[in-house]
Design a protein that fits this description.
rotamase; EC 5.2.1.8; two-stranded antiparallel sheet; Chitinase A, domain 3; 26% helix; three-stranded antiparallel β-sheet; globular; alpha+beta; isomerase
């Protein structure tokens, strides 16, 4: 079985989201008032993610541990895993009244914001993306299935 997928397959991923001043929703599970996010520039978010990515790629840190500590997405409670039931502010295209969406299992095309989707589908299982920008903030993504 190939580690990459065809365009019709569903994928599974984990991510680390760092929100910043330009993020659509300036609050998170760890910063409900958005005080830190409002004062974080995109450049600062990118710098932090690059440093975190370097630690993961070098083996100094594990992706799920880093996601649990630093991600602004509530998927941090599952080590950044988006492949199971999750609640993550503003990352899906179909956002509910409370700006929270639910997803069961891997996701397919058209379910995530386009830059996130494209980056995830371009990865092989186990690979980690470079910085990905969406309306939600900046991400690094690890394809897990």
């Amino acid at each position: 079985m190939s580690s990459s997928s065809s365009s019709s397959d569903k994928v599974r991923a984990s991510h680390i989201l760092i929100k910043h001043q330009g993020s659509r929703r300036k609050a998170s599970w760890k910063d409900p008032e958005g005080r830190i996010i409002t004062n974080t520039t995109r450049d600062a978010a990118v710098s932090q993610l690059k440093s975190l990515r370097d630690d993961i790629v070098s083996g100094k840190s594990k992706f799920d541990d880093v996601a649990s500590r630093f991600s602004d997405c509530s998927s941090a409670k599952r080590g950044g895993d988006l492949g199971q039931f999750f609640s993550c502010h503003s990352i899906l295209l179909f956002v509910s009244l409370f700006d929270t969406a639910l997803l069961f299992g891997p996701f397919g095309k058209g379910q995530m914001q386009k830059p996130f989707e494209e980056a995830t589908y371009a990865l092989k299982v186990g690979e980690i993306s470079d910085i990905v920008d969406t309306d939600s903030g900046t991400h690094i993504i690890m394809r897990t299935g």
